[in-house]
Structures are given as C-alpha cells and as structure tokens.
Write a structure and sequence with these properties.
With 256 residues, this protein is α/β, with parallel strands linked by helices. The protein has 2 domains: 7-83 and 182-255, Rossmann fold; 90-180, Hypothetical Protein, Haloacid Dehalogenase-like Hydrolase, Chain: A, domain 2. Helix content is 32%, strand content 25%. It has 9 helices and 13 strands. It has helices at 25-36, 49-53, 90-99, 125-131, 147-158, 184-195, 210-215, 227-232, 244-255, and strands spanning 7-11, 40-43, 65-67, 72-74, 80-83, 106-113, 116-120, 137-143, 165-171, 174-179, 199-204, 218-221, 235-236. The strands form 3 sheets. A 5-stranded parallel beta sheet has the order 2-1-11-12-13, sandwiched between helices. The chain has a 5-stranded antiparallel beta sheet with strand order 7-6-8-10-9, with helices on one face. The protein has a 3-stranded antiparallel beta sheet with strand order 3-4-5, covered by helices on one side. α8 links the parallel β12 (218-221) and β13 (235-236). The longest helix is centred in the N-terminal third of the chain and has 12 residues, at 25-36.
C-alpha cells in the first residue's frame, strides 16, 4: 500500500514520541504502519545522534534525521546531508551577554573534535570566550537552577541584537542559542527538499519546536505541549503519554 507516499513526518523526541522515558505502544505500531504504507518518518531533536541510536530498537526513522536541533542532518548509517556550526558571529553576542552576568548553573557546548561530537561544560560565558573561540560549536545551551533564572537569561538576550540567531527554551531551565538557518525549521525544509516529499508534517511540544511547526505544511502540538506552541499549530493532539504520534497518523488519513 502507498497511502502515505510523499508524506514526511518530522517529530520532536522528548515529550512527543516519548514521555517520562516511555514510548506508548500505539506510537510504535502507528509509526510502523505509516512507514509500511509509503510514509517517511523521522526525528528532529536537540539530542545527539548516539543518544537516539541507542533508543531505536522497536522502530527507526526511514529517512534523514536531524540532531542537535538541526545542526546535523544524517542517515542512521552516517550519510550526512547537512552540518552547521554557530560560527564566529556567536562571540559578540556572548560578549554582550557576559556583561549581564547570566545566572547559569552550567553551559553545555556540543563540539566537533576530529570525527567525534563531544560535550563540554564550561563554568561561565567568559570561559567560552577564553577557551572556545577556535572550536567548531554545533550547539550551546545555558542551563540554570530554576525557571525564574532561565526567564532572566531570556530577558537579557531580549536586550541584545541576536542577528542570525534565536534564543529558545528546549526545556524549562535550558535556553539554547541557535542559528536560525540551522534550526528545526530549516531541518524539515532540508529533508523535505532532499527526499522530494509532497507534504511535510511536524509534531512537537516545546518552544524549540515553534520553528519546526512553522516550517511544515501541516503542524501538530501535543496535548500537554506549551500554550505558545498550541497557538501556532494547525492541530492539537492527545497527551504525549496517550500516544500523540498515533493520533497524528490517524488524523492524517483524512488530511493527506
């Protein structure tokens, strides 16, 4: 059968496919059915590739997947479609941010080290400025102890001209600085173009999924997603723990 031929689903991972460490069985069965009927299903996550590969036991993407929130797009066996770094333009922004003394608990940097992707945890923005100017940085996350501290960092970033970058929360205490052209939205466009899909469908739950949903032809926010995402989504599904992906695929029967 080819009911879903030409249809690409790009889903967030945490809080969308999986909730509290559990993938609902109905999601697994629905994804397999979607793929068997000609559809392409994949993940676009802030997680690194190795993390996701360890979790693809009951099902797996059948096209390119995007990791580190769109900075890398690759197949499961390593064929790379896209790789993007923050670049030198991020450092003037960090210099401005450092003046406000952001209340970070730690900062996570995902870097290219030879052929490996490694995570470093500098203690401060100033440490990044001192030690990592020559590094190939895929992704930067400012992590705090509380939601209120995270909100303070977002307020600080609102006072800075971010230029090519956006600041988004990936979770309540993690704020990421991303290049807009390396975001989840850019990733779904790149994958759609590469495979020649006729319809792109996005599914997510949090602020870093806004770009993803905005770039898709059809968009879904999970039922327990944030209100800002629901406000821009075409549709709202059931709760993630109730099988949001299964609900999406069921609804697509009538939409595509």
């Amino acid at each position: 059968m080819s009911k879903f031929k030409g249809v690409l689903i790009v889903s967030d991972w945490d809080g969308t496919v999986i909730k509290d460490g559990v993938i609902p069985g109905e999601n697994i069965e629905a994804i397999k059915r979607f793929q068997s009927e000609g559809g392409r299903f994949t993940i676009c996550s802030g997680r690194p590739l190795d993390y996701l590969l360890d979790r693809f036991s009951d099902f797996a993407p059948n096209t390119y997947l995007a990791t580190l929130n769109g900075a890398i797009i690759t197949t499961l066996d390593g064929e790379r479609l896209f790789e993007g770094f923050l670049g030198e333009e991020i450092f003037p922004i960090l210099e401005e941010l450092a003046k406000y003394r952001p209340p970070t608990k730690l900062i996570a940097l995902y870097l290219r080290d030879g052929e490996k992707i490694v995570r470093h945890s500098p203690g401060s923005v100033n440490e990044i400025l001192d030690k990592y100017r020559e590094a190939n940085i895929y992704k930067l996350v400012l992590i705090t102890d509380s939601e209120s501290d995270s909100a303070r960092i977002k307020s600080m970033l609102d006072r800075i001209d971010l230029g090519k970058f956006i600041a988004v929360n990936s979770w309540s205490t993690g704020t990421e600085l991303l290049r807009r052209d390396h975001s989840k939205g850019a990733a779904i466009r790149r994958i759609k173009e590469r495979i020649g899909a006729r319809i792109s469908v996005a599914v997510g739950d949090y602020e870093n999924d806004i770009e993803l949903l905005s770039a898709a032809d059809i968009s879904f926010a999970v039922g327990d997603g944030i209100e800002a995402l629901k406000a821009i989504a075409d549709h709202v599904t059931v709760m993630a723990s109730e099988g949001a992906l299964a609900d999406v695929i069921s609804r697509l029967e009538d939409l595509v």
